[in-house]
Amino acid sequence: MQLLIALGANIGSRAAALRAAIAALTAEVGLLVKCSAFYETEPEGFQSSHAFLNAVAHFETTHSAPRILQITQAIERRMGRTTKSQDGIYPDRPIDIDILALGDTICHTKDLTLPHPHIAERRFVLEPLTEILPTWRHPLTHATATEMLKRYEQNTN
């Protein structure tokens, strides 16, 4: 099944962290089909003097959404991530791994929402996603990655 993962890091050796996370995901989640370039972006949703490197990776997997969440959180912990957002306040982080989508899976649990509820609101997701899968369709809105990026750009200009 198609798995889309967003990765980001804004402290430490950011590029090395993204590469290490992609390698760990490949070893534990499934086949890496394609990974975007790394995009340098300003923090969104919180204040920090540290810019992010972000990427989106496309994997093929046989794992379930809950299992993928366990794996991604374990990788984050191994790579030094100690805290998640608290009440919408985000800390700087050595690695951030978010599940964007798993095939056409629709999931709303306490721990996981798929597709990721903020895909269409984040340039740091939309640009790398459009680079690797411009025709990918959001399972709920059916908008393509390209359409979502255009809409985002129209709404922020």
TrEMBL record:
Listed CDD domains = HPPK
Q: Which Gene3D superfamilies match?
A: 7,8-Dihydro-6-hydroxymethylpterin-pyrophosphokinase HPPK
Q: Which GO terms describe its molecular function?
A: 2-amino-4-hydroxy-6-hydroxymethyldihydropteridine diphosphokinase activity; ATP binding; kinase activity
Database matches in InterPro entries = Hppk (IPR000550), Hppk_sf (IPR035907)
What biological processes does GO assign it?
folic acid biosynthetic process
Please list the residue ranges annotated as the 7,8-dihydro-6-hydroxymethylpterin-pyrophosphokinase domain: 5-134
Answer whether the UniProt record assigns the keyword ATP-binding to this protein: yes
What EC number(s) is this enzyme filed under?
2.7.6.3
Give the main EC class: transferase
> According to the lineage, what is the superkingdom?
Bacteria
Record family assignment: Belongs to the HPPK family.
What is this protein's name? 2-amino-4-hydroxy-6-hydroxymethyldihydropteridine pyrophosphokinase
Q: Which gene specifies this protein's sequence?
A: folK
